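Model it.
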Amino acid sequence: MSSPSSKGVALITGASAGIGAIYADRLAKRGYDLILVARNEQRLNEAAAQLRAKTGVQVTPLPVDLNDKAGLAKVEAVLRDDPSITMLVNNAGVGSVASILQADVDKMQAMIELNVTALTRLTYAVAPAFVARGKGTIVNISSVVGIAVENLNGVYSASKSYVLSFGHSLQKDLADKGVRIQTVLPGATATEFWDVAGYAPQKTSEITMQAADLVDAALAGLDAGELVTIPGLHETEAWTRWEQERRDMSAKFRNPKPAPHYRIA
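Modeled.
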């Protein structure tokens, strides 16, 4: 796909609704052409048509189920082979509020395949291309439950902890090669996520953020050069302190003997 846009093309997963649809709108208004990935072909085509009419940018719908290996491979190939792509927004994901005693393990495996495996494979597909060109941006959507892991389903929380950890590693590997990495940690956000997760009332809770506010804050964080953006955290020094303490503690793991309080002779 050739693009007349000086910004290039942003590929967004989970782009037909919710956070992904807002990203598509905002990036189009910033001058990016778009490749929109989602399962629902009808809704994806409607969203693409509306964006073309409203913004005038090129919008390519790519109806794909990222839980399908062939579909995922198709998106990987686009990311590897299209030199006009300058941004990847890994937004597609699914959640749950069910405990281990209530949740179906096959659904949990499908969650891992979407939230972890698909995000990882798409990142691995695009990163070498960005490095070869010396520029590119990868935005990975994690969640505050990647830190506050007890709040929702354990597999969902663990999958979002993975995204946060993966982002730290990507920053280490790619920052000096011209590739920007941003990890975004939304709190409760008013989208269809909650219908699928099994707790629709959360969409109207007084602590729930509107998706437009979430994306606008995430893009402001990207503009400011943030590596990790947590739109709902007003006390930003709390994250800075927690992250520094984590890094400081990592140096203290390097001991050949167990700690004295284990009383091993």
